[in-house]
Write a structure and sequence with these properties.
single chain, 13 helices, five-stranded parallel β-sheet, five-stranded mixed β-barrel, alpha/beta, 445 residues
């Protein structure tokens, strides 16, 4: 007879949302549920949603429809929709559209999910900005590869870029105390994690919501670096307006576990567009920062993202962006066509760019960027690197170096041959071939 406490999870969106999914799973498992990997074996189906862009919402709608189809097949099944879509749906239109969903759970409901499922508690009223933040004592089931873990040091955002709905979905910036982050990091490392991926909406804003505490990103990194063990620390999602001399000084050191990898979503380089986006930093300051980082940090990998087709973007401003990437030569880059978000300032701006033109510009920018990445990757040929093995499949090890984050960057394919190679280990590999999409390597021993 099938258990009444079996859970099937669907996690959509970013790594920050995945941490929320891990907390949802941890809460339910610590309260008597078991996790299954086939929906037909479950009584409870949870979709943790993303709502950041129209494509993300469409993906969420499709996942909800899958859950509703699952629900119809078996008696007593429950479907729960959690996360960002619930917070985004201010009008209730989505809940009305999917009226057969049993429970809509928001960000502040995550810690009480088991009580919501059992009916002991009702969801908090919608309308208020989320304020919940997990800590080291919150049950969490790691759903990544065993040797990788995301370490969410803050939630929410105070940047209020004009195109972005994150502050209205996730709430204001709220940072975890250093002691809490350290305690969780120590547990993860003790459990065999070899790469800690430090994440937030903006990791460089860490501590800015609690200035009296004096806790800053450099101080947090000093503490994380002091944790014993052989592991990497990778920073994701840094804002160019929040770089400080202390942070740059720390990144310039060569005696730390923090990788020389910086993800700096710049979004554009035109002074007019940066101002319209409310990015808090101008073109000259961005260029000065990038040149300083290149000069100070040995072996630096720069990752960024750009938005094309922002309202009012002229052909000259797009050309300016094209010239900029040719000058800086980012090792890693993503490009997204602008899409108007309901309720944002940019969504109501005049001079909206046609979607087709925004997409055409994005494709053109990415074509140029791929040429840059191919040349950058080919510069690694002949070099021997320490690589982290993520997987071994069909006689080939899938590995990454310090220049590549999981899921979003490149991988190195390394034939195993007769060697015994295990995921989660760091091995020396010589790069023998490369293109814009990745690398081929061979083990040196």
């Amino acid at each position: 007879m099938k258990s009444q406490h079996t859970l099937y999870l669907v996690s959509l969106g970013c790594s920050k949302n995945l941490v929320d999914t891990e907390v949802i799973a941890g809460n339910l498992l610590s309260n008597g549920f078991s996790l299954v990997f086939e929906p037909d074996e479950a009584d409870l189906y949870i979709v943790n949603t993303c709502a950041f862009l129209p494509a993300a919402r469409e993906e969420a709608f499709a996942a909800i429809n899958d859950g509703l189809a699952w629900k119809k097949v078996g008696k007593g099944r429950k479907l729960i929709v959690a996360g960002c879509l619930t917070e985004w749906d201010k009008s209730g239109a989505v809940r009305k559209r999917f009226a057969d969903v049993d429970l809509w759970s928001g960000v502040d409901d995550i810690a009480a999910i088991s009580k919501l499922v059992s009916g002991e508690q009702t969801p908090l009223p919608r309308g208020k900005a989320p304020c919940w933040l997990y800590d080291e004592n919150t049950p969490r089931l790691q759903l990544t590869l065993p040797h990788l873990a995301y370490l969410k040091i803050a939630d929410g955002c105070n940047n209020c870029c004009t195109y972005c709905s994150i502050p209205s979905i996730r709430g204001a910036l709220r940072s975890r105390p250093i002691a809490s982050v350290k305690a969780e990091a120590e547990m993860l490392v003790a459990n065999g994690v070899k790469e800690l991926l430090v994440i937030a909406q903006d990791v460089t804003a860490y501590g800015m919501d609690r200035p009296a505490d004096g806790e800053t990103l450099p101080k947090l990194l000093e503490v994380l670096n002091s944790i014993p063990g052989d592991f990497w620390i990778r920073l994701l999602y840094t804002h160019p307006a929040h770089y400080t001399p202390e942070f740059i000084d720390f990144m310039a050191r060569t005696d730390t576990k923090v990788l020389p990898y910086l993800d700096i979503p710049l979004q554009h380089i035109s002074e007019h567009i940066l101002d319209a986006m409310h990015r808090h930093i101008g073109k000259t300051a961005i260029i000065d920062l990038l040149h300083e980082l290149r000069r100070r940090i040995a072996g630096l990998t720069l990752r960024t993202t750009f938005i094309t087709g922002f309202p009012g973007e002229t052909e000259a401003e797009f050309a300016e962006l094209m010239d900029f990437i040719a000058e800086i030569k980012f090792e890693r880059c993503g490009v997204f066509p602008y899409s108007a978000e309901p309720g944002t300032i940019a969504g109501a701006m005049p001079d909206q760019i046609p979607t087709e033109l925004a997409e055409k510009r994005a494709a053109k920018l990415m074509r140029r960027q791929r040429l840059i990445m191919r040349k950058c990757n080919q510069s690694y040929i002949g070099k021997t690197l320490d690589l982290l093995i993520d997987d071994v499949e069909d006689g080939v090890a899938i590995a990454r170096g310090g220049s590549d984050a999981p899921e979003i960057d490149e991988v190195v394919s390394v034939p195993v041959g007769s060697r015994r190679v295990h995921p989660g280990t760091i091995r020396r590999v010589k790069i023998v071939a490369a293109n814009a999409d990745g690398f081929v390597g061979e083990f040196t021993r």
